[in-house]
Amino acid sequence: MGSIEQTAEILLCLSPVEVANLKEGINFFRNKSTGQDYILYKSKTRLKACKNMCKHQGGLFIKDIEDLDGRSVRCTKHNWKLDVSTMKYTNPPGSFCQDELVVEMDEENGLLLLELNPPNPWDSEPRAPEHLAFGEVQVTYLTHACMDLKLGDKRMVFDPWLMGPAFARGWWLLHEPPSDWLERLCRADLIYISHMHSDHLSYPTLKKLAERRPDIPIYVGNTERPVFWNLNQSGVQLTNINVVPFGIWQQVDENLRFMILMDGIHPEMDTCIIVEYKGHKILNTVDCTRPNGGRLPENVALMMSDFAGGASGFPMTFSGGKFTEEWKAQFIKTERKKLLNYKARLVKKLQPRIYCPFAGYFVESHPSDKYIKETNIKNDPDELNNLIRKNSDVVTWTPRPGATLDLSRMLKDPTDSKGIIEPPEGTKIYKDSWDFGPYLEILNAAVGDAIFLHSSWIKEYFTWAGFKDYNLVVRMIETDEDFSPFPGGYDYLVDFLDLSFPKERPSREHAYEEIRSRVDVIRHVVKNGLLWDDLYIGFQTRLQRDPDIYHHLFWNHFQIKLPLTPPNWRSFLMHCG
């Protein structure tokens, strides 16, 4: 194997002040320690960046005085011109594209420029596509982000969430999985789990599977926070979890291999995958915001990605200030449209033969989340598919549970009536009831836990969490179902500057956030040392902040960086005893 693990190298760091001073259009920078030059292009919607080096013969770019739009630069060697807004060379036209660098904002609104190396790892040891027999490669949609792939005589499953909720009790399955889903999981040769979020890594589903096949091979990427960081706590007995390096082909048999890639925006937790069978590629970008830093294989046989939006507590769980119902509704409408257009552009650029929108089929079906369900509008997969077909020749597939796509038939003739076999007439597509009881019972069990008889749990917990030296004061309020204070519940302040717990807000200038959380969920999260995604993405909080700024450092810590082992409550209770 000639492959080397893909890594991300930091080329340039800009301070928050430098970021704030970026001007619209073209900005030139030099990394003083390495002497390397870079160009940053700022538009209203995004930042793009590249090395300041002409692809022709390595010349340096300067401002192009003939360019009135402020979008292009000119090479000092041979007058080649680059439009930095598109990263295409305009002189000579149709020649090259400039390689884009990954732009990442850090916690403090500073900025990092990253380069992924190698940039296109799937090009190592290329295989020409071979003939596929009808029925040789079949893709069956089960629910949400879960696909069952038949690849020759091997079977592979993506992201099985087939029972129970995700994000504490906030998300439930929209689609009714096929009745034989457990058999399908049991006969899989391998399972890929893209990341640790519970709509992809579903412990209730895996618990059911592990009772039948604890040794089933599961593959995850080598993310900074391990995908299965919470396996021991979960009590699920899985014995064959394989962590694989990024950007290296994993050979399953002579015809089948796969490669896991990192996300450019959330490399610490998100991944995506390319599966290749006899030279035909299936690309699944899952939830990645900038999969592989925006560089992906073109002309794959089948591409699938998320599309729906709505996977955040923002803005529906916010109130106060600008967060009126009108503002939130307008924001959601605009954001969803942006996401839809971005996905359509991406598909047009990558030109897969077939595209399938998935991983957005969830619903906030618990009665107490009625407000979220009615207002957190999601994109419609058919609308996206229509947009894609209007602008390209890509064939699209809106999946229904149990429907099977025959890759060979679809590649040969997209109009073949046997290309996609829909589930039998009368099959239930949408769920109309969910088994809330057992899952809410688990959450409720935390409410009466002995830990919460002692108010010193607050100091114990936030000391364990390890976030401080940040000028933010948070008021935490435990509430009932309707976000009114829970009778006898805790209502307290945490000052993260020195990790103190004052009785009132300090007199110095500080940022302030008020977080109301349903008591069963916050206590379950505290007791088990879980990440705050359950609260935030699960719509189990209501938030107000002053001033209205996003404290990335704070939220990133509680959503991704908490310690890997839960607080030692046993020792805490002994000391309290």
Automatic annotation (TrEMBL):
Output the GO biological process annotations, alphabetical, semicolon-separated: CMP-N-acetylneuraminate metabolic process; N-acetylneuraminate metabolic process
Domain (Rieske): give its ranges.
14-112
Superkingdom in the source lineage:
Eukaryota
Alphabetically ordered keywords of this record: 2Fe-2S, Cytoplasm, Electron transport, Iron, Iron-sulfur, Metal-binding, Oxidoreductase, Transport
Q: What is its EC number?
A: 1.14.18.2
- Matching Pfam families: Lactamase_B_3, Rieske
Any one Gene Ontology MF annotation carried by this entry is: metal ion binding
The compartments listed are: Cytoplasm
InterPro entries attached to this UniProt entry = CMP-Neu5Ac_hydroxylase_Rieske (IPR037339), Cnh (IPR027033), RibonucZ/Hydroxyglut_hydro (IPR036866), Rieske_2Fe-2S (IPR017941), Rieske_2Fe-2S_sf (IPR036922)
Gene Ontology CC = cytoplasm
Task: Give the catalytic activity.
Answer: CMP-N-acetyl-beta-neuraminate + 2 Fe(II)-[cytochrome b5] + O2 + 2 H(+) = CMP-N-glycoloyl-beta-neuraminate + 2 Fe(III)-[cytochrome b5] + H2O
Pathways involved: Amino-sugar metabolism; N-acetylneuraminate metabolism
Function as written in the Swiss-Prot or TrEMBL entry = Sialic acids are components of carbohydrate chains of glycoconjugates and are involved in cell-cell recognition and cell-pathogen interactions. Catalyzes the conversion of CMP-N-acetylneuraminic acid (CMP-Neu5Ac) into its hydroxylated derivative CMP-N-glycolylneuraminic acid (CMP-Neu5Gc), a sialic acid abundantly expressed at the surface of many cells.
Please state which protein family the record places this protein in.
Belongs to the CMP-Neu5Ac hydroxylase family.
**UniProt name for this protein:** Cytidine monophosphate-N-acetylneuraminic acid hydroxylase
Q: Which organism is it from?
A: Ursus maritimus
